[in-house]
Specification:
Elements: H1 3-23, E1 49-57, E2 62-69, E3 80-84, H2 92-101, E4 104-107, E5 110-113, E6 123-128, E7 137-138, E8 145-147, H3 149-166, E9 175-180, H4 183-198, E10 206-212, H5 218-231, H6 237-245, H7 249-257, H8 263-276, H9 314-322, H10 325-330, E11 349-350, H11 360-368, E12 373-378, H12 386-400, E13 404-413, E14 416-424, E15 428-433, H13 440-443, H14 445-457
Parallel strand pairs: 3-6, 3-9, 8-11, 9-10, 10-12, 12-15
Antiparallel strand pairs: 1-2, 2-6, 2-7, 4-5, 13-14, 14-15
């Protein structure tokens, strides 16, 4: 190549740098190859999107797929939020970004804008983790057997370290970790690893974590399901008595994962399933179901209902959209060892007994380290009901010696009650989102956005309208 050509390229690069500086936009040459020019069927937007792979293990060729959406306005001043979905084994791209709080939702052959996207308030980073989920992969498929919380946490930490090499302008940015469901394990465990890492090299500017309908303590979370079913009229008095005395849900799930379901638990669960019905969405007991759907983010949390749905047919649209070759090309994504992208992994063999390890203790460590924590519950979710979550947070506050700083009461979104909230020691918060499902940003997007914005800004939820 001639020197003239080299000089022309150098000049173009210099001009690009200058334009970014003048406009106040971040510039990172290493992230250019991951920029999304435009998603198929996407409306025009002013913010930038990126997606691609970050290698977490060169030797064994393991890579995690991410989707990153800059804030709609003034991304330089907005925080960075890492979002993780649960499962374990479900996609933050397909579930989180395209069904819940991302900027677009698939609709037919195109995508339409989500008016209440969380990138209105933050730079949103969605991670498909662990490997084997969505477009994330291991070249050696044997790795998918025995993946556990420890492996997931370490991989997520390495992902962020290496992602900052692609996007160094975000290295010192205020960082928040958010997630839902089994991310009640992922998020606190990753936050704890970050704090440990920062003792040697202060890389992570962690400002807080938020957990939606999270698994925090197996027995309390799961056994609160019986009262929720009964109080919402889903089961009879006699079945409620059996569900709380003969075989509770934590016992059943524990037996199920060990392949030793007792006859008595089998009979109780059969009765519970009959009365609650296949046609009631356990993740939102007031929501209609999409009969054709076979999707469930929390299939592992709900082993008897693996074909039931969390929302109404949007997951079918997402599945079709993300399996299009032109969409995968636009996302810089590829399928390794699988024929189709799926919302929840068909190849991952996760160590499900990790479910029984409580993470509420890790949340306590984070609070002691002065990391703000918000735990919120969609109040129509029977999978991880608000009653168990509220009990755990209240107990934790008591153990930590935190006094109530915001008494339990309503908060508002526009001129309606958005939910209820209580704050302990101005650092540990519990909130419900009224009318919301297990995936609150899908079923109550506007109320979820109000809660999200308040959390990022460190402000109490609105107490008046």
């Amino acid at each position: 190549m001639s020197s003239l050509h080299w000089n022309s390229i150098a000049m173009c690069v210099a001009i690009l740098r200058l334009c970014h500086l003048v406009l106040g936009l971040p510039y990172s040459p290493t992230s250019r190859s991951d920029i999304i020019t435009r998603l198929p069927g996407q409306p025009q937007v002013v913010f930038r999107q990126y997606s691609g792979y970050v290698t977490v293990d060169d030797k064994n060729q393991r890579a995690l797929f991410y989707y990153f959406v800059e804030a709609e306005t003034d991304p330089v001043s907005k925080p960075l939020v890492l979002w993780l979905n649960g499962g374990p084994g479900c996609s933050s791209l397909g579930v989180g970004a395209f069904s819940e709080n991302g900027p677009f939702r698939p609709k037919g052959e195109a995508v339409v804008r989500n008016e209440f996207s969380w990138n209105r308030e933050a730079n949103m980073l969605y991670l498909e983790a662990p490997v084997g989920v969505g477009f994330s992969y291991s070249a050696d498929a044997s790795f998918y057997s025995g993946v556990n919380d420890e492996i997931t946490g370490k991989d997520n930490l390495v992902f962020l370290q290496n992602w900052f090499l692609k996007f160094p302008e975000y290295r010192n940015r205020s960082l928040f970790l958010l997630g839902e469901s089994y991310a009640g394990h992922y998020v606190p465990q990753l936050a704890e690893l970050m704090l440990q890492f920062n003792k040697k090299d202060k890389l992570f500017n962690l400002k807080g974590i938020a957990l939606g309908n999270p698994v925090l303590e197996f027995a309390t979370d799961f056994n609160s399901r019986a009262e929720f079913f009964w109080s919402h009229g889903l089961i009879s008095d006699s079945t409620y008595r059996m569900f709380t005395s003969v075989c509770n849900y934590s016992r059943y799930v524990s037996e199920y994962y060990r392949g030793t379901v007792s006859p008595i638990c089998s009979r109780v669960m059969s009765q519970v399933s009959t009365e609650t019905s296949r046609f009631v969405d356990k993740y939102d007991v007031t929501l209609d179901v999409c009969i054709s759907s076979v999707f469930s983010q929390t299939k592992n949390l709900n082993p008897q209902q693996v074909t039931e749905t969390i929302d109404v047919c949007v997951e079918d649209e997402t599945l079709n959209y993300l399996n299009r070759k032109d969409v995968q090309l636009a996302l810089h994504a590829r399928l390794v060892g699988v024929r189709r992208w799926s919302a929840c992994s068909n190849v991952l063999d996760y160590e499900l007994l990790d479910l029984e390890t409580p993470t509420i203790t890790v949340v306590g460590k984070l609070v002691r380290a002065e990391i703000p924590v918000l735990v919120y519950s969609g109040d129509q979710d029977s999978v991880i009901p608000l009653t168990g979550t509220r009990t755990l947070i209240h107990q934790l506050a008591k153990e930590l010696g935190l006094k109530t700083t915001v008494p339990y009461g309503v908060w508002f979104e526009r001129q309606q009650v958005g939910g209820w909230t209580q704050v302990y020691g101005n650092i540990l918060s519990f909130a419900t989102i009224r009318g919301a499902s297990h995936e609150a940003p899908f079923s109550q997007p506007q109320r979820s956005l109000v809660l999200f914005k308040s959390f990022l800004e460190g402000r109490p939820l609105p107490k008046a309208f």
